[in-house]
Structure to design on (652 residues):
């Protein structure tokens, strides 16, 4: 039994079949990578997890509950956080404020308008947010306006925002795209460390094979909307189907 | 001070000083000078300056923080006004129940309007609020005449019940008061050629404005305010962060509606009347102009914008052709006629033209409003001195949309 189970998910956009009978089983505490060529349907699949899209047919269960029909904020409350392919951050707020918001959302309960309570006690939130920025190596950028940062920094900020909520499942859509080599390596270290310490289950979409093979404990290969192979990293490397659909096509 | 940061305390103190000293500041010209018509230190106008300041401060909590642009906020001011007059008619000539009930009724009405309008965002939200306000205006003007007085408006009458008051003496007209102090009581201080007027109603309204301003600082700086700014910045991200934005936007909507109700109640306290024209769409538009002109999303901006617009409305609109002619009388006849001819369209009833042009200039060249203008000037001075950044009084330096 996996913590995230996807069964026979189908999704079409008009005539385009973006996902066809997708099955996926993510085990608790694992880093599960999804790879595949551009347009394979990877982001679409994540959209079906967080309530941005509703699958035409199929089931998505997380921690024993169905995620279908839940609104994005409800899904987050069950412990799912997502880093998007194009950074979704609070562009005109400062970096620190960006991290404080998810901290407030987590502590004060999302639904309740707990303004009075949160006015009273802001200090622990501030400390938590600052610690989070230290963890992702962004403490020096704390007072910068988020929109003025590089794409890689925005993504790191988004990661910090998600991690500050201590999610059970972290979905990462190309977390290192736009990052310099050094930052990519930092991110790999950070994610590996977090997984080791906090046992957060992660689903990572990534084009950078260095990242994939450094982190993933299991890999699913998606091509044209279907999972063609799901296996351990070592087996994926030389898999003929993967060569053909992905690695072959890319070179 | 009072749980505020240093810069915010300074801002609060400046606002307190300005409101307390307004009778001096607004009357810089001696009474008999040519410039006396630019004096704004008379009670009626001073009251309006602070009351519309309250209206704009409240509007800014919704628009400045969440970015939701309501085009119907005058409805809450109007509903508050009617509720206030009814309290004066039914309960007592003391203004306190009138003001309190105005706030409550406007809050309840804005809860209803907000609940429905906030189902949509962007332009659809704006249109919904506008529709509600125009509906309220039309109802007040016609169908609800028994409650609102229709065209003639609502005023207290000698024969009203006023169950908490003793009967008025024969021939005395009902006047609103605060424990025996009448709103239009004033003390005139004569210094040389100057006359400074200290008016009871003005100071009551000014105290309300200072409190309203203080509360708005607290809201801006609170986690609640942070959430509202998050709504404006990226509502999607907020949802994926586990927050449903509607309770927050609705709370902001109701708070700003209650500010509008307070303004309405205070207007009633000052002139004991209410009319449907207070809810007309132009009145809703005016508070939008005030907020943007001053600087949406900044703390002090709406107060400046409200003061600026009300000052213009009252001063520029009073200049007429005769006054213009006396100004240019030193010129030869033909030339003075030309000048009067050029300026005439911009004064008197044409003050809207002046305001419109000023508004366009501000939006184009200072999208952050008067506050941004002030910061630019302050920045120029600072740069000359030490080249450091100017301190901002705003919640975010981002320009208003
Ligand atoms: N909202 C949408 N409406 C219409 N078509 C869409 C939508 N989202 C995705 N698609 C289409 O579905 C297909 C899969 O897109 P998706 O973004 O999931 O690919 P991806 O695997 O994430 O690719 P990439 O690696 O480039 O991010 C593409 O052909 C895309 O154009
Ligand atoms: Mg994608």
């Amino acid at each position: 039994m996996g913590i995230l189970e996807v069964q026979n998910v189908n999704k079409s956009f008009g005539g385009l079949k973006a996902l066809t009978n997708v099955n996926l089983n993510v085990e608790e505490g694992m880093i599960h990578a999804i790879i595949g060529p551009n347009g394979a349907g990877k982001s679409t699949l994540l959209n079906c997890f967080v309530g941005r899209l509703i699958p035409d047919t199929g089931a998505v269960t997380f921690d024993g509950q169905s995620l279908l029909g839940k609104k994005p904020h409800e899904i987050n409350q069950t412990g799912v956080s997502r880093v998007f392919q194009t950074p979704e951050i609070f562009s005109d707020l400062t970096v620190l404020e960006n991290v404080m918001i998810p901290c407030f959302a987590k502590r004060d309960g999302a639904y309740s308008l707990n303004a009075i309570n949160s006015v009273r006690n802001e200090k622990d939130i501030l400390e938590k947010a600052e610690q989070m920025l230290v963890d992702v190596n962004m403490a020096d950028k704390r007072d910068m306006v988020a929109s003025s940062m590089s794409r890689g920094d925005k993504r790191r900020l988004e990661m910090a925002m998600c991690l500050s909520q201590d999610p059970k499942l972290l979905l990462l859509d190309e977390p290192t795209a736009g990052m310099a080599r050094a930052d990519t390596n930092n991110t790999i270290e950070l994610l590996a460390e977090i997984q080791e310490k906090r046992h957060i289950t992660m689903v990572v979409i990534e084009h950078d094979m260095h990242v994939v093979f450094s982190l993933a404990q299991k890999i699913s290969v998606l091509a044209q909307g279907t999972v063609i192979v799901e296996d351990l990293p070592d087996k994926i490397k030389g898999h003929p189907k993967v060569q053909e659909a992905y690695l072959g096509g890319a070179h | 001070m009072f749980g505020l940061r240093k810069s915010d305390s300074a801002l609060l103190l400046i606002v307190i000083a300005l409101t307390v000293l307004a009778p001096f500041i607004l009357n810089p010209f001696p009474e008999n000078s040519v410039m006396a018509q630019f004096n704004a230190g008379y009670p009626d106008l001073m009251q309006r300056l602070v009351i519309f300041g309250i209206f704009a401060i409240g509007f800014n909590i919704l628009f400045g923080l969440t970015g939701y642009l309501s085009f119907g906020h005058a409805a809450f001011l109007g509903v508050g006004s009617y509720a206030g007059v009814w309290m004066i008619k039914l309960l007592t000539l003391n203004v306190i129940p009138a003001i309190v009930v105005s706030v409550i009724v406007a809050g309840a009405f804005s809860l209803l309007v907000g609940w429905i309008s906030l189902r949509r965002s962007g332009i659809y939200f704006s249109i919904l609020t506008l529709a509600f306000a125009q509906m309220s205006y039309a109802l007040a003007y016609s169908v609800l005449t028994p409650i609102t007085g229709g065209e003639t408006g609502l005023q207290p009458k000698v024969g009203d019940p006023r169950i908490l008051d003793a009967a008025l003496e024969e021939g005395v007209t009902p006047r609103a008061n605060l424990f025996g102090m009448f709103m239009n009581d004033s003390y005139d201080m004569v210094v040389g050629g100057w006359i400074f007027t200290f008016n009871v109603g003005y100071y009551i309204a000014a105290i309300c404005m200072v409190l309203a301003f203080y509360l708005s600082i607290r809201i801006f700086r609170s986690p609640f305010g942070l959430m509202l700014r998050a709504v404006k910045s990226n509502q999607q991200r907020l949802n994926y962060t586990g927050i449903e934005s509607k309770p927050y936007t609705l709370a902001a909507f109701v708070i700003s509606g209650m500010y509008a109700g307070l303004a309405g109640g205070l207007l009633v306290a000052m002139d004991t009347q209410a009319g449907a024209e207070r809810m007309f769409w132009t009145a809703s538009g005016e508070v939008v102009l005030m907020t943007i002109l001053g600087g949406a999303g900044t703390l002090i901006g709406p107060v400046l914008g409200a003061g600026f617009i009300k000052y213009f409305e009252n001063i520029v609109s009073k200049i007429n052709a005769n006054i213009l002619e006396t100004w240019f009388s030193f010129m030869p006849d033909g030339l003075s006629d030309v000048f009067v001819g050029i300026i005439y369209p911009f004064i008197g009833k044409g003050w809207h033209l002046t305001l419109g042009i000023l508004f366009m200039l501000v939006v184009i060249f200072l999208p952050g409003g008067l506050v941004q203008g002030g910061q630019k000037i302050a920045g120029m001075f600072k740069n000359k001195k030490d080249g450091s950044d100017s301190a901002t009084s705003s919640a975010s330096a981002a320009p208003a949309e």
User: Anything to note?
Assistant: Residues 387-401 of chain B have pLDDT under 50 and may be disordered. The CA atoms of residues 118 and 300 of chain B lie 26 Å apart. Strands of chain B lie at 177-178, 181-182, 186-191, 194-199.
